[in-house]
Design a protein that fits this description.
Chain lengths: 80, 80, 80, 80, 80, 80
Amino acid sequence: MDNKEIWLETLITDTPQEGRELAIKMAIKSIAAIQTDAETRKKLRSDYANDTTQLIASANVIAIEFQTIAAANNYWKTEK
Amino acid sequence: MDNKEIWLETLITDTPQEGRELAIKMAIKSIAAIQTDAETRKKLRSDYANDTTQLIASANVIAIEFQTIAAANNYWKTEK
Amino acid sequence: MDNKEIWLETLITDTPQEGRELAIKMAIKSIAAIQTDAETRKKLRSDYANDTTQLIASANVIAIEFQTIAAANNYWKTEK
Amino acid sequence: MDNKEIWLETLITDTPQEGRELAIKMAIKSIAAIQTDAETRKKLRSDYANDTTQLIASANVIAIEFQTIAAANNYWKTEK
Amino acid sequence: MDNKEIWLETLITDTPQEGRELAIKMAIKSIAAIQTDAETRKKLRSDYANDTTQLIASANVIAIEFQTIAAANNYWKTEK
Amino acid sequence: MDNKEIWLETLITDTPQEGRELAIKMAIKSIAAIQTDAETRKKLRSDYANDTTQLIASANVIAIEFQTIAAANNYWKTEK
């Protein structure tokens, strides 16, 4: 794992939509942590972007990550 | 990812059923965030709408998204 | 999506068992929201009712939906 | 769905282990709700009992159901 | 199901690591509850221990079980 | 299972990013607990690092583990 760059400073976002974007980022970063070669990841991209089974599985990951982010932000209802 | 349009302003909905609709929307938007080409998504649609394995996997995603929305709305029991 | 009919007015049920029934209904409605043609759904039914992999995947969805319903009902322990 | 028999009166169990048993029962009942024919279910049983992929998927369902039961029982820590 | 032996007296463990061990045990016991024949389970073991898809699916189950255990132990932060 | 080494002393981390790293570690340790032979794991690695389905499934596990860690750390919002 060589993602030494700091990419996750906080789970707090201003809006729910930014929370969605963070959820997607977290999912992508997990994949990058396992397949560390960026070139390989690029080649693999079309494998899942055109396979509905994998698109749905990706949406599953995003939904789980978003649960965490939404809870962290108290569902953007009150001050955090 | 080019869904710059704001489509998720709040997790709060008036009714549980609107919460279901939002859960479905969130699942669809996740897929759109990965497969950004609308034409391709349209072509892929029949792939999953006729494959029960994928329909069930989609229902799994919706169930997870709905958990988040239901918690955000305090299960539509009390004032939010 | 043309399930304009109101089928989910509340997550509150009188008993845990009714909560299970609602969980199953929610899973089925998710599938109906994606595969909107009732005739097609009917034809697809035997695909998953006889395939244990899909039966188990369906049970996974029901388990997630039930988590939400059980939390909404405070696990049927106290007044809601 | 013809499981009209009342099989889930409460989520409360005396011990964690009884909670596990209930989780397994809930998973089995979900499958019975979709594949309503007992004879067919019996025939299908060997399909998953000998397929590790399906055994693991079943364990996933049981784990989710148990989460709900454990929360309902306040993790068997204090009075319920 | 013939796991009448009492193997789960409590969800409380002294340390997070013991919580991990319990999570693994719970996953294994679920499989044993469905495939009750120990000899068969032994034979099936190499099926999943050498298949990364199944190893990952097993890790998914362990992660869910651990969520429950960690919550039961209040994340090993304070007295339980 | 022969991971007698203590690798999980606490779920508390200083930052969300360290929480991600711990989530990845937990997922990897689960796999090591089932496939105990390090040589075999090494050989299997290319199986999943180049298969997007398995990369996504791995990301699913990481997302679940991270939920637990994030809750343990109160989402890194307040003192723990």
